[in-house]
Amino acid sequence: xxxxxxxxxxxxxxxxxxxxxxxxxxxxxxxxxxxxxxxxxxxxxxxxxxxxxxxxxxxxxxxxxxxxxxxxxxxxxxxxxxxxxxxxxxxxxxxxxxxxxxxxxxxxxxxxxxxxxxxxxxxxxxxxxxxxxxxxxxxxxxxxxxxxxxxxxxxxxxxxxxxxxxxxxxxxxxxxxxxxxxxxxxxxxxxxxxxxxxxxxxxxxxxxxxxxxxxxxxxxxxxxxxxxxxxxxxxxxxxxxxxxxxxxxxxxxxxxxxxxxxxxxxxxxxxxxxxxxxxxxxxxxxxxxxxxxxxxxxxxxx
Length: 302
What we know:
Layout: H1 5-15, H2 27-30, E1 36-39, E2 43-51, H3 54-62, H4 72-84, H5 89-92, E3 95-103, H6 104-110, E4 117-120, E5 141-143, E6 151-154, H7 157-181, H8 192-195, E7 204-212, H9 213-223, H10 230-246, H11 248-259, H12 266-276, H13 283-286, H14 290-300
Antiparallel strand pairs: 1-2, 2-3, 3-7, 4-7, 5-6
């Protein structure tokens, strides 16, 4: 279970004491504050704090004194224009701080998104909990034969059971040794900062992660994509649902132009123009590489 009854009680106590404020408030985001959205077997995402809303984006773009305009349609049109033309600074006026509990190997992917402020649970100071990510059977898959960084067929039967048993036994044994190595009252042992080095990559860690909306959209564009690794994608999808409630106009524009849209190279534009003019253009006439042509066909057809 990601949260203990004690943790849930702390969250509900925090939510039970709202305070009056003059700052911009997103009613959609207020519903998410402090609540834990469970991810994987022991993970979660929680909103700790946020700044700004859709109106803050508009206000910054117009450098106005009020909260957007009197007409939501005007604000929506401006936000879509900003997204369509790849403006960034107005979206940077909104920020969010998340509390995330995640496996270490997921954290190592996540931290590559460097434009953020991060503070991680310290295994030098504290002892890590005995919690490991163990995949559901549907996520146990072999290496893809066509994608060097993806999965192929799902394991079945005895092979799936063999791999799952190793994952569980290895994690348990490594944690047992971790505990046995730690300095305790009856033995000198190792310092926590050394004993942790034997722990597996599927053990859970936690951090506070603060970023602005522009960089969060970049994170979501890559990690909520169908091609992203499942274990980080489910975190991105949970965050995307929160963002949709926080800044619905900006999120709708992001979904339309970034997640649902596609970019074309100059060669791609030329091929489309030639096709619209009635010319039959294939790979040999496109001037593209094989990889580019496969991606082009996946969107525009053969």
